[in-house]
Amino acid sequence: MAIHIGISGWRYVPWRGVFYPAGLVQARELDYASRFLPTIEINGSFYSLQRPASYAAWYAATPPGFVFAVKGNRFITHMLKLRGIETPLANVLASGMLALREKLGPILWQFPPQLRFEPDKIESFLRLLPRDTGEALALARGHDDKMIGREWLEIDAVRPLRHAIEIRHDSFRDDAFIALLRKYNVALVVADTAGKFPNDEDVTADFMYIRLHGEHELYASGYEDDSLARWAEKIRLWSEGKQPPDARLVSQAAPPAAPSRDVYCYFDNDIKVRAPFDARRLMALLDLAWPDDPPPP
Question: Which of 17, 32, 39, 246 is most buried per CB count within 10 Å?
């Protein structure tokens, strides 16, 4: 069992001179942030395919034990809406994320608000997702010609791969969807979105994935002490393989029993420069240290 608390993205202009020290060059921002927090979501991969050189540089810039979550490309989720995605998925997997090696954590797939739950389509998508880096490499070799010269087709070891899905349409609040996630060991993202999108907390995998977008204002508002204390207690229970007694559930079917679960939690309330500080406060409530002597904010 491990608890990873971090932030979504790291390159934000308003953070400079507030979270990042004045004068810190942009190229050193990941280096700094990764000494302050143990995990970060890569957001750029959602908007466009990144290059192997970028992933390799991010790997080199971060300390041992650091973990990246990688956001799946929106071409698959928002444009193709999960149809005809075999080659685009291969392109994503060939774009360099495997160069993160042991620092590659879960892959996050955020569905658009317009995407509805269609059981057959969703199961076809879940069935395609690679379960380990060996499967990912095999799929990546099916990339198309536009990836030639910018592909990464090697791994240093076969490691498990995890996937998480963030829903934004109420039709996914369906027992059948929860059952599918459990069948394929894919995590339902617990997403705090100031009430804008579904925020269910069903346990569907051997890990939990939480995204805190803002308690009162999406992407902006911070979390006060009482809110962070509630999240800390939920995270503690999930990490112990338990279910919070006040969890918001779609399905009344019990999740698979587990003595413990890894937890990944990311603050995405970046507009007012709350995310990194809220993350450190939540870590303190959970008695987590990273590292023993973090740089001053």
Answer: 39
